[in-house]
Amino acid sequence: MNAQIPSLLSRLSTKSPWLYRINAGSCNGCDVELATTAIIPRYDVERLGCQYCGSPKHADIVLITGPLTVRVKDKVLRLYQEIPDPKVTVAVGVCPISGGVFRDSYAIAGPLDQYIPIDVNVPGCPPRPQAIIEGIAKAIAVWQTRI
Amino acid sequence: MSDGLILLFSVLVFPGGLFALALGLLIKGVDRRVAARLQRRVGPPLLQPVFDLIKLSRKETMIPAQSSAAIFRWAPLAGFSCMVLAAAMIPINGVYRPSPELGDLLTLFYLLAVPAVVLMLAGSASGSPFGAIGFSREMSIMLAYEGPVLLALLSVAIRVGVGEGHLISLSLTEIVQYQRVHGPFILDPWMWPAMLTFLCFFPANLGVLPFDIPEAETEVLEGPLLEYSGPSLGLFKMMSAVKCVVVLGLGITLFLPNGPDGVLGLLLFAVKCTVLAVLGVTVVRTGMGRMRIDQAFRFFLKWPLALGIASLAIMLARS
């Protein structure tokens, strides 16, 4: 019985994943997809309890877009430190994985997973809204093992 | 001794504390669901605010290095406890009559200012520039809406006081009693200016669109709440849920407290709160964009203030 209560609480907690977006030098394509994914009626992710939050301190699931440029690297790492544990990282688009169309550029510090642990990759240029929602759903499953 | 226990029960369990918190969270859930439906979305489950609280209780609390840690830590608790106390001062017709020791209309009015003060303290103690902007905006909007609302409260108090044979009546129980005998004020056109003023006060005090300027997440990243995380952010969410019940309950007490006794009266109170929240908050916030702080300031010192003065003048002229 005593073991069941924490697991029940963690199951209920996963119904409230708050999303935070970090743009690590993205071309804005994935950011537009992220904005429309959650906000337009057709692909409403609020039904999963998700909510975009303005502050990294409120976040549970971090969505990172872009190839991690040299100039933005330190800021992204600092933002990542500001997010309270337990947290899950989702890399959205092909850029955080390989650099995408920006690979081999002198301005790129990526790939992202050399600097911060990535839990879910959502490849695509940009990924479809359905793919992003699936990525968020997988991130929730990862998050349940931590909270 | 038993009087003290009853007082403690009314503050901590019913109608303050647990009851107000449960009702407030339910109203927040209905608000989010209805807002989603108005935008043709599916929306979150009704218990979403409860899930949010459970989640926040299991997160890490971070205290920024540049903050004044003591104020930062205790401000949310102070705000929450003041709102619980205020919730015990709201009478529910036929169910609950607040003890006179808890205070009168003016005490309640001052307690209602505490969450705004707490947000200002939290914003300035967090050491973040966004918190400081939130602090200044919270102060301007509070200065703008307090005056008109006080006028509306006074016109109700004078109306009841004159009806009962003395100059002014600040007791909430007396206001409810008067309307039980003479009919609710919502049916009296002379009271409508005061009611309109009070309707403008809802979104400003509850911090929702078009007056969520201090916490605008797209401009100042939730302002005073920016640096809060985990359980202390949860306390702020609980404070705003209880505040929701207090403000809605005050509106119901002032203009439409009538209803049956017993459990039915309690249910009717909850229904009235929810309907008022949907009409006065949800529909307004889905239908409007955010005002700038100077527009909001000018708005409150124009229409609600004019209505408040008109309503006070009507009450004085008719007495």
Report on this structure.
- Chain A: Residues 27-138 form the NADH:ubiquinone oxidoreductase-like 20kDa subunit domain.
- Chain A: This is NADH-quinone oxidoreductase subunit B.
- Chain A: One of its GO terms (molecular function) is 4 iron, 4 sulfur cluster binding.
- Chain A: Belongs to the complex I 20 kDa subunit family.
- The complex is a heterodimer of chains A (147) and B (319).
- In chain A, 35% of the residues lie in helices and 14% in strands.
- Chain A is globular, with a radius of gyration of 15 Å.
- Chain A has a five-stranded parallel sheet, with helices on both faces.
- The longest helix of chain A has 16 residues, at 129-144.
- In chain A, helix 2 packs across helix 5.
- By secondary structure, chain A is of the alpha/beta class.
- Chain B has one domain (2-318).
- In chain B, 53% of the residues are buried.
- The model of chain B has no long low-confidence stretch (mean pLDDT 85).
- Chain A binds chain B through residues 9-10, 12-17, 41, 44, 46-47, 49, 52-55, 57-58, 60, 82, 84-86, 147, and chain B through 32, 36, 39-45, 48, 50-52, 54-55, 58-62, 217-218, 221-222, 225-230, 233.
Summarize the model shown.
Chain A: Residues 27-138 form the NADH:ubiquinone oxidoreductase-like 20kDa subunit domain. The complex is a heterodimer of chains A (147) and B (319). Chain A is α/β, with parallel strands linked by helices.
